[in-house]
Design brief:
Shape: globular
Number of strands: 5
Bound molecules: 5-O-phosphono-beta-D-ribofuranose
Strand order of the largest sheet: 2-1-3-4-5
Largest sheet: 5 strands, parallel
Order of helices and strands: EHEHEHEHEHH
Helix content: 40-55%
Strand content: 5-15%
Structural class: alpha/beta
Number of helices: 6
Length: about 170
C-alpha cells in the first residue's frame, strides 16, 4: 500500500522531486509518483485528491512551478495533510512560492522552500513517525547523521590554526 503520494505538475519537475523520492526510499516508506496538473488535467486532479484517503495515502507531496495551483487545489479536495513544493520554473520560483503559500483560511497547505523537495519528504516522514514506530526509528537514525555531520564540521573548524587571533 502506498503511504505517500508525490504529485508533480510535469516531468520537468522530476529532477527536483527525485530528492523526495530518494529520501522516502531511504526511510523505506512506500510511495507513488504521478504527474497531474491543476490547469492541464483538472478532472484527474479531482479524481486523485478525492480518492487518495480511501486508497490509504497518508500524506501528499505536491510540486508545481509557475502559477502553482496544484497543491492548494489538492488540499481543497482532501482532508489529508498536503505539503507543497514550489518549483523554480520561472521567476526563480517566487511565483510558485507565492501561489502555494498563501492559502485561504481553513484550507492549509504546508509549504517548504523553493525546490526543497527533500524537506517535503522529511516533513512527511515526521508525520508518519507519529503512528509508525519503525519509520520513527529510521528517522531518528537519519537525524543522528545530521548531528554527526555538524560535529565533524565543528572539529574541522577548530583544527584551523593559521590565524593569529583565532581563539579556538
Ligand atoms: C507547471 O508548469 C509544472 O509544475 C512545471 O513546473 C511548469 C512547466 O511545465 P512544463 O511546461 O515543463 O510541462 O505546471
Amino acid at each position: 500500500m502506498c503511504t505517500v503520494s508525490i504529485i508533480m505538475g510535469s516531468t520537468s519537475d522530476l529532477p527536483v522531486m527525485r530528492k523526495a523520492a530518494d529520501f522516502l526510499e531511504q526511510m523505506q516508506v512506500p510511495f507513488e509518483m504521478h504527474a497531474l496538473s491543476a490547469h492541464r488535467t483538472p478532472a484527474a486532479v479531482e479524481r486523485f485528491a478525492t480518492g487518495a484517503k480511501d486508497r490509504g495515502v497518508k500524506v501528499i507531496i505536491a510540486a508545481a512551478g509557475m502559477a502553482a495551483a496544484l497543491p492548494g487545489v489538492i488540499s481543497a479536495l482532501t482532508p489529508l495533510p498536503v505539503i507543497g513544493v514550489p518549483i523554480a520554473s520561472t521567476l526563480d520560483g517566487i511565483d510558485a512560492l507565492y501561489s502555494i503559500v498563501q492559502m485561504p483560511p481553513g484550507i492549509p497547505t504546508a509549504t517548504v522552500g523553493i525546490n526543497a523537495a527533500l524537506n517535503a519528504a522529511v516533513l512527511a516522514v515526521r508525520i508518519l513517525s507519529l503512528s509508525d514506530q519503525e519509520v520513527a526509528e529510521r528517522y531518528a537514525a537519519y537525524c543522528a547523521t545530521l548531528s554527526s555531520k555538524v560535529e565533524k564540521a565543528d572539529a574541522e573548524l577548530a583544527a584551523i590554526s593559521d590565524y593569529k587571533y583565532k581563539t579556538n
